[in-house]
Every structure is written in C-alpha cells, then in structure tokens.
Amino acid sequence: MVDNAPVSDQTFAHLMAGLGLGPENGPVAVAVSGGADSMALVRLAARWGAVVALSVDHGLRPEASLELDRVGAWLKPLGIPHDRLHWDGPKPASDLQAAARAARYRLLEKRCRERGIHALLLAHHQNDQAETLLLRLARGSGVWGLGGMAAVAPALTDMPVQNGRPLRRYRPLLSLPKARLVATCKAFSQEWIEDPSNRDVSYDRSHTRALLANPPLSGLTARRLAQTAQHMRRAGEALDHYAQGLMARCVVFSAQGYVTVQRTGFQTAPLEIQLRLLSRLLMFVGGAIYPPRLTGLEALLAEMGATGFKGATLRGCRVFLQDGEQVIICREEASCAAPLPIKPGETVFWDGRIRAFLDVDQKPAMVGALGDAGWRYLCKEGQGIDKALPYPVRLSLPALWSDGRVVAVPFLGWRGSEAGFSTELMARQSVFGAMPDVEQE
Predict the structure, then answer these.
(1) Residue 213: which residues within 8 A CB-CB, separation 6 or more?
(2) Which part of the chain has CATH 3.30.465?
(3) Which of 27, 68, 404, 423 is the least buried, fewest Cβ under 10 Å from its Cβ?
C-alpha cells in the first residue's frame, strides 16, 4: 500500500463492505467539518451511494459560519444535500471540548433519525487512532481503552431510526493514513479548510500529533500504533469471550432490569475477567454508553470482595449485597433521568433504557422513577403489588405519574385507573454487543 496514494472507488467500496454497509442499504450521513479528512470521505461516499452531509456550527468561533458557507458551496454543484446544525444555548466554562463533542454527536444523531438514516460516517483515520492510543496510554487506560476507536460504535442514545433499525457510527477510513485522504482531495481538485485548533499547543492532541511527526523512537509511527490498537481490540474480544462464560455461570438477569451476581463463583475468575464483566454489567443496567474509569472499577471490585461490604454506587448504578452471597446491581434512583412528558398514543424513551407507551384513550402524563414517595403511595393504595423486589430496585422502576400521583407501575404489575400504559426494558445492546468507544474522541 502506498501511504500517499489517493483512495480509489474500489478501495472505499471494500472498506464499506467490511463494515457491513452497501449502497442498497439506503442513504448514509457523513459528518463534514470541511477539513481534508471529511471532504475526502464525503466525496468518496457520494461516488459510492446516496449521502447527506451534516455539519455542526458549535458557535465557538465567529469564522465557523463562514467556513460552513464554503462547505455548502463545495457540495452544492455535486448534488450532495447539506444540513447545517447549530449548538445553541449556554456553553460550559470547563471541559468545553468534551461538551462540544457530545453536543456534536447528539445533533448529528438527531438529524439522522429525522431523516430516517441508520448509518453516520465519521472521518477518523489511522493518525487519529494513533493519537488516541497515545492519549489513553498517558491516562493509564487498560486493554479496553488501548483498543482505540471502534470502526463501528453504537449511537449516544438508543432510540431507533424510523424504520426500526439501530443507528450506528461508522469509521471506514480508520485503517488509512491522513496522507491518503489529502491525496484524495487533491485528486478530486477539492479544497479543504485547515482547523486552527490543530495547531493550538494547549490541547494534548496537538502534542501527540507533534510527537508522531518527530518520533523519539524508531518505529513509533502512526501505522504501528494503529496496529497496536487493533491488537488490543482483538485481545479485548478474547477477554469478552471468557467474561461471557463467567456471566453464564454467575449472573441472573431480572425482567425489571437489575442483575444478581453470585459473589463466590464470580471471584474465582481471573481479575481481568471480573473487571471486564463488571464493567459490562454496569453499562447494561445503567444504560450508559461509556464504561466506568478503570480506577473506579477496580475500587468497586475490591469493595465487593471485602468482608462487610455495605454497598456502593458507580456509573449510575447501585451495588449492594443481599443474603451475604448475592451482589445486586440495579439502577440508582438519583441517577435516573428527570420525568418525561408522554402524550396519548405516544412512545417515548426514558432514562436511556426504557421504552414507554401510553394508550390513545388516556390523558397526558409523565414517565419518571417511582421513588420513595411513589412506593409509599403504592403500599397505601395498591393491592397485590410485588413487594419481593429489593428496595433500591423499586425506587428506579419506571412509573406513570398524573396530577402528582402514581397511576401505573407495569414492572410491579400494578395499574390504577389509567391502565393503558406499558413499559419495556430497552438494553442499549446485549451485554457483550458491539464494543463502544471508551471515551468521546
């Protein structure tokens, strides 16, 4: 492979097929910032199949709007639809980059769903992967984190696209060096915009980019580091295989969304397998996209194995001991989403894990956590409710609220006068589904 050769249509089609994508699957969306990477991607994708370009103006730089004007002018004669999205509202004073990334993904994914598109293409490439590996190495990441960015990653939110298919983020260029994308733009006579933040030395990624440009060791190249990330990802898949075996032996799943872990059997597994499974269970129960930090996970695992374990919280989950042997992992009430309005005949997704539906003959209400007040009301008014569930589990159960009172809690088998309400546990994916990104890139 020539590291500075333009990407051919055949090569791009092969990369897309490797991700399970074909032109016959319908249009794809491409996140376009105007840089050489995203301009190369959108041009290649437009020759491959139907595309929609999506650009986000974060409102952080006054010149950003003019840059997107240029992007639109480049795409219009090519017949590529271009949607401009805006991050409105107040901006955080700290960790602005992370907040901007999260906002960008939310806006991109929301527009994909509005357009009925199930595939969002991102232009991350081999150099980005190498930089990500170095950054995570500096943070002390484990096998999972050192696997770098995933070629296929789940969406930030679990709401399906209109056609019922899950929305996924795809990175078809992850194996290609940036030089090939620059060469591709030149082959298309395509201009691009240089991002000034790439030269800002206050960002860690700028330092890693400079290090790769002048490596202190022979062989410390973007290609080698990207290969290392791939090796670590394969190692992670092997660990998942053995963690699934441990799960089959020691974990029981409840229809109410909590899990029970047999502590003694769990502790017989190697430490890395325990950590792997515990992380996946926390993500599954809490509806989280990203796994907990390794330090917090190791601390929780140590607490779980200690005599007199009283319970702990991590990643939106409550972990506690029952009957001296069973470890319960359930959703933490304090971390549940705020109550969400629901209209008659409407389906809403609450707390990243619950699909709720209200019949058309009901009146508008709210979906929220049952909580202590709701439970006490049920004990007073409800008949035949299931009181066997552990108390912390009950608190986070989805309930229908109307006029300040609970009117239905399907997971407890209880309904008041408003019987037309149903809830369903929506796992973001199976416990060992597609490897998520460890952090926002």
Answers:
(1) none
(2) 245-334
(3) 404
Q: Is 34 annotated as a binding residue?
A: yes
- CATH 3.40.50.620 segments of the chain: 9-214
Per-residue pLDDT, 12: 98
Report the range out of 66-80, 147-161, 379-393 with the highest average pLDDT: 66-80
Residue 393 contacts residue 329 (beta carbons within 8 Å): no
Average pLDDT over residues 174-196: 94
Q: Could you tell me which CATH number the domain at 245-334 has?
A: 3.30.465
- Residues 244, 67: Cα–Cα separation, whole Å: 48
Q: Is 195 known to sit in a ligand binding site?
A: no
Question: Hey, which CATH number is domain 9-214, 3.30.530.20, 3.90.1150.10, 3.90.960.10, 3.40.50.620?
Answer: 3.40.50.620
- Give the three-state DSSP class for 210: helix
Per-residue pLDDT at 441: 35
Considering Cα of 262, then 263, then 269, then 273, what sign does the dihedral take?
positive
- 382 a known binding residue? no
Q: How far is CA 373 from the centre of its chain?
A: 32
Phi, psi of 223 (to 5 degrees): -65, -45
CA distance 239 to 253: 21
Query: At residue 306, what is the residue type?
Result: A
Using CB atoms within 10 Å of the CB of residue 105, give its burial: 0 to 12 exposed, 13 to 18 middle, 19+ buried: buried
pLDDT at 161: 65
Report the alpha-carbon angle 210-58-335, nearest 5.
Answer: 95
pLDDT mean over 174-188: 97
pLDDT tens-digit map of 312-356: 999 999 999 998 889 999 999 999 999 999 999 998 889 878 889
Q: Which tens digits make up the pLDDT trace of 278-316? A: 999 999 999 877 788 889 999 999 999 998 898 999 999
